[in-house]
Amino acid sequence: MRYFQGKTVWLTGASSGIGLAMAQQLAEAGAHLILTSRRHDALEQVRQSLAHPERHQVLALDLSQPEQAALMAKDALGDQIIDILINNAGVSQRSLILETDMSVYRQLMEIDYFGVIALTKLVLPRMVERRAGQIVTVSSVAGKVGTKLRSGYNGAKFGVIGFMDSLRAEMAQYGLTVTSILPGFINTQVAHNSLTGDGTALGHEDPDNAGGISAEECARKSLEAIAKQKAEVVVGSGLSKLAPFLQRFFPGLVRRMIAKR
Ligand SMILES: NC(=O)c1ccc[n+]([C@@H]2O[C@H](COP(=O)([O-])OP(=O)(O)OC[C@H]3O[C@@H](n4cnc5c(N)ncnc54)[C@H](OP(=O)(O)O)[C@@H]3O)[C@@H](O)[C@H]2O)c1
């Protein structure tokens, strides 16, 4: 993908799953990467495994504290030009509303919603000044269709699509591109890392994610959409890919199907 050649891409969630696959494909495509997640050592391993490791840098940040993460990033990045920010880091949920602590809702919002806003606000002024740049956020089909066990995740992923829509409208006059990626079920560690009602990780896989498309395929389709500067794209297969369409045109049917699952 020639689009990424020589571009500086700040990619969050680069240590595993979709982000790791994106990092590999972006490095192959000639991008210069800033790799972010919490785990510095894991990111350093990723960096060394990529094509042209010397072109890439590691920036470990904890997005559960978005303002602090943004301050650390500001210090680390200084005046560096960012061509594309990909807000991909995220955490999911597997717990019923009746059994979920408020602190879990707050944590999901910090990482999946406020984390996106904090990093976007950090890179935006320079992009506006340069009249160039692209902000990408990996939301989810769960940002269009609410299901059981994901109430906080649904809220954050719905919210972030709204934020991106507003950002797109405000940035059109400056020529910036704003892209939302909505994956369906993808075979990654997302279920394993999902928060349960008391905030601990679920710790095992989920058959829906295990049966989904690979992280590599998701990354390839997402990067194609980014290169085409699409506003919004759904990536996945089967029912999870169809769900936003069904929700829009047959909402009653979708409500009944979800309540029965
Ligand atoms: N897999 C799916 O079926 C699916 C479907 C729809 C949407 N998505 C979205 O796709 C994105 C990537 O998920 P994935 O499937 O690749 O899951 P994953 O394998 O669990 O990867 C999540 C990534 O986010 C990082 N992360 C988690 N908490 C963080 C924090 N507090 N601060 C900074 N980084 C943090 C993790 O790195 P560290 O552990 O090193 O921090 C990791 O790199 C997420 O936004 C997810 O919601 C996934």
What does this structure look like?
The protein is an alpha/beta fold. The protein has a single domain, classed as NAD(P)-binding Rossmann-like Domain (Rossmann fold). 47% of the residues lie in helices and 14% in strands. It is built from 9 helices and 9 strands. It has helices spanning 17-28, 40-49, 66-77, 102-130, 151-171, 207-210, 215-227, 238-249, 251-260, and strands at residues 8-12, 32-36, 57-58, 84-87, 134-138, 177-183, 186-187, 213-214, 232-235. The strands form 2 sheets. The chain has a 7-stranded parallel β-sheet with strand order 3-2-1-4-5-6-9, sandwiched between helices. It has a two-stranded parallel sheet with strand order 7-8. α8 packs across α9 (251-260). The chain starts with 7 loop residues before the first strand and ends with a helix. 45% of the residues are buried. The mean pLDDT is 98. Bound molecules: NADP nicotinamide-adenine-dinucleotide phosphate. Residues 12-19, 37-39, 42, 61-64, 88-92, 111, 138, 140, 183, 185-186, 188-190, 193, 209, 212 line the site of NADP nicotinamide-adenine-dinucleotide phosphate (NAP).
